[in-house]
Amino acid sequence: NDEQGRRLEVILLAAGTSTFTTRRTGTLNVTQACGTVIVRELAGDTYQIRDVLTDKLLSKPPYREFACSVDQETVIGVTGTPARLMVGLPPHEEIEVVKHDNLVQFAISTDGKYLAYTTPVDGKLSLCIRTQSDGAQSCTDIGTFPVAGLTVNETGHLLYGFSDDECWYENPLRAKAKDCFEVHEWHSGLAKAATVASGVYPVWLTD
């Protein structure tokens, strides 16, 4: 359990080998960003970002949470009090002000062309995809609970994990097996997200 710390397994698909990281407490979600694999960690009353492959901290002041393109030139992240979701390095554009860091999630495509994020709007969660070059964006309401992982690829397609509320209340067998989490896909051309798999914390994989 997390009181004893967690180790992350790094699997090299091409080589067919795997290694384990140092055991640490406070390990949260893992995703692909900044040309590597990053993990968000609790650090006292704030967060820090660690490069899983090198096991070193990765920082982009003044952001305390962030994701960036593969060349690390385009950055989206959270800074300030109250928390502000911003873009740029240094931050130069405010997307949203939120009460707490855990009310917002964000992602960036490896080429930095697309930004994706969720923010609370009138008691519901809004999921948005934004083109970085011109700021054009499309949004859709996806419910009232936080998503379990968010990722966007170079074509502007989003994947996110989500809890199927009907499943929890109306399908006791799946609920007992904790099988009520689904991966959804959405892009600006879809009126409604499509369910593509069971699970949480999806990640688009790139070379």
Structural write-up:
With 207 residues, the chain is mostly beta strands. Helices cover 5% and strands 47% of the residues. The strands form 5 sheets. Strands 3-4-5-6 form a 4-stranded antiparallel β-sheet, with no helix packed on it. The protein has a 4-stranded antiparallel β-sheet with strand order 7-8-9-10, with no helix packed on it. The longest helix is centred in the C-terminal third of the chain and has 6 residues, at 165-170. The chain is globular, with a radius of gyration of 17 Å. The two termini are 32 Å apart.
Task: State the gist of this model.
With 207 residues, this protein is mainly β. The chain has helices spanning 165-170, 172-176, and strands at 9-12, 17-20, 27-33, 36-43, 46-51, 56-58, 65-68, 75-79, 84-87, 93-97, 105-108, 114-121, 124-131, 137-143, 150-152, 158-163, 181-186, 194-198.
CA radius of gyration is 17 Å
Task: Please report which band the strand proportion falls in: under 5%, 5-15%, 15-25%, 25-35%, 35-45% or over 45%.
Answer: over 45%
Summarize the main sheet.
Answer: 4 strands, antiparallel
Q: Count helical runs.
A: 2
Helix percentage: under 10%
Spatial strand order of the main sheet = 3-4-5-6
Mean pLDDT: 85
What is the general shape?
Answer: globular
Give the topology string: H per helix, E per strand. EEEEEEEEEEEEEEEEHHEE
- The secondary-structure class comes to mainly beta
Can you tell me the residue ranges where pLDDT is under 50 for at least 5 consecutive residues?
none
Distance between the termini: 32 Å
- What's the count of strands? 18
